[in-house]
Amino acid sequence: MNHIDLGSVLRQTVSANLYSNLVTRPTGAAVRNQIEQLMQGAQERTLTVLDFSHVSMMDFSCADEVIAKLLLRYCDENPPHEAYFLFRGVTDDHWEAIETVLERHGLALAIEQEDGVHVVGVLSERERRTWEAVKRHGRAAAADVATEMGEDESGVRSTLDALWRRRLLMRLDEKYVALGGERAG
Amino acid sequence: MTTVITVPPSLDDQTFEQVLEQLAPLPPDEKILVDARHCRWASPYGLTALLTLAQTRAERPAFAGPEAEDTAGYWARADFYKHAETLYDMHGTVPRRTPGDSKVLLEVTPVARSEDVHDVVERIQQKAQQIIATELNLDAKATVGFAMTLSEVCQNIVEHAGRGGWVAVQAYSWKKRLGGRRVVQIAVCDAGIGFRNSLENAPGRVRDDRWDDGAALEAAVIRGVSRFRDPGRGQGLSGVRRYCGRWEGKLSIRSGTARIALVPRWDDDIPLEENLSPFPGAQVQVTIPERAATKE
Description:
- The structure holds two protein chains of two kinds.
- By secondary structure, chain A is of the alpha/beta class.
- In chain A, 46% of the residues lie in helices and 22% in strands.
- Chain A has seven helices and eight strands; from the N terminus they run βααβαβαββαβααββ.
- In chain A, a hairpin with a 2-residue loop joins strand 7 (169-172) and strand 8 (175-178).
- The mean pLDDT of chain A is 91.
- The longest helix of chain B has 22 residues, at 114-135.
- Chain B has nine helices and 13 strands.
- The N and C termini of chain B lie far apart (56 Å).
- Chain B is globular.
- In chain B, 49% of the residues are buried.
- The model of chain B has no long low-confidence stretch (mean pLDDT 90).
- In chain B, the strands form three sheets. Chain B has a seven-stranded antiparallel β-sheet with strand order 7-8-9-13-10-11-12, sandwiched between helices.
- Chain B has helices at residues 16-23, 44-55, 69-77, 80-87, 114-135, 141-161, 194-199, 213-222, 235-246; strands at 2-6, 10-11, 31-35, 41-42, 62-64, 89-91, 106-111, 165-173, 182-190, 250-256, 258-262, 272-273, 279-289.
- The interface between A and B is medium-sized, with 29 and 24 residues.
């Protein structure tokens, strides 16, 4: 698992090293490029923690460049590699911008909070329930999740695969693991 | 020959139109003297717009500052003269900023690059927290939104203007409206290409008979149209609109010959004003008022 402190990346990226706010598109693009460089040479499948603990606030433009474009690139049909992201240290001071760009692009992400990992953003009710079922299981096959949800296995498998393509679940052989779950981290 | 342009005694976004009406018939290379001797008060918009005005002139203009000592002192503390000296031939004594803590929230500051926006946001954060929570009685969440709003309106210059502009922020009691409630005001002015030119070839633009400054402002502010094909664009102004809506704020943007305003209940401004005197670039003002309930 990689850990990227966005505060450090920000200070390495912009010319003066005293800034603590993720603002402006050029800064966002530079930070995203730096994140991708840090991920270069990674294995076929990676889980990266993006840590906002040392970022004071983020504006809409920067959130679009850092978060939306990163997720769009790695949730694409042909991503550079199988990359998963877990967001840590996100506070109310970051949330408005993040929520706005997730809604704009129809994206969702896994976020680590005091009471565990949650998925936030644009998800259908079915996707949300399915993700929660996998999280409770730890590592689960489609049949296990279908049994728990009392639903048809093929329909559940289709939702699990959709969540995997959105990089909210890992797919390990025939089993699924929620990001941030015991066996995913 | 030099033409004298008289600055009204109280200079804000509304009265600045009187300045532009005097300028409208003059060619850009005509020598002008901007006479602010009898000006007693200026909003952040007034100060930044005066600097922007100088940028629009082909012939370096002259400037005579306020005669009233307190007014001149405030303009000096707001760093108006520091920048005016680079743009105007100054008449009379130029007041100097005295050392010490200024009560100006954000002095008149040039914005041309992304780094300037970082500087502005870092500088405002601590002061914004104090003014938003203690003077405007708004929720702490409004502080972050304020910094985001400031960042996005400044980025408008960096991304679209094609030349540098100015930003200033100040808080004061609004005597004319709101029964003397406190307001905080952001003003961001540039003399760049303006909304109409910026959006001329925007992918989402509806090509119909009506394409003028008013239509361009409506497209950008109401429909979130951007000149970039990137679907993530246009979120900045949308975010500013939402922020103003949530905190009963007012957003107004003037560009070219038009001015659009998102008018809150406490104001009676015109939502879209057209056929104004021409002025290049874009001039943005955001006003956030003190929460009314706390006064009742």
